[in-house]
Design brief:
This protein is mostly helical. Helices cover 83% and strands 0% of the residues. It contains 3 helices and no strands. The model has no long low-confidence stretch (mean pLDDT 96).
């Protein structure tokens, strides 16, 4: 446990940022999974789910939570499933 005041604050900030980042990545993964389930089930709202998941993936890249190549790969896979 840090004893210096600035280190204590940095630890507090790091925990807060980690919680926010984990939450956002989880939401992105959930959106992708919901899209995949909708495609398998043949749901009518799969285009809407595709756009929502794509938006979350793009936001994750802008926040440096995932690499740009991973985002492109995920979006490409989803587009392929959507158009199949």
């Amino acid at each position: 446990m840090p004893t210096i005041k600035s280190a204590i604050k940095r630890d507090r900030q790091a925990k807060k940022a980690n919680a926010q980042n984990s939450s956002y990545k989880s939401a992105m993964r959930t959106a992708i999974k919901r899209f995949d389930q909708a495609v398998v089930a043949g749901a009518d709202n799969k285009e809407e789910l595709f756009h929502k998941a794509s938006k979350l993936v793009d936001k994750a890249v802008s926040k440096n939570l995932i690499h740009q190549n991973k985002a492109a790969r995920e979006k490409s896979r989803m587009a392929k499933k959507l158009n199949a």
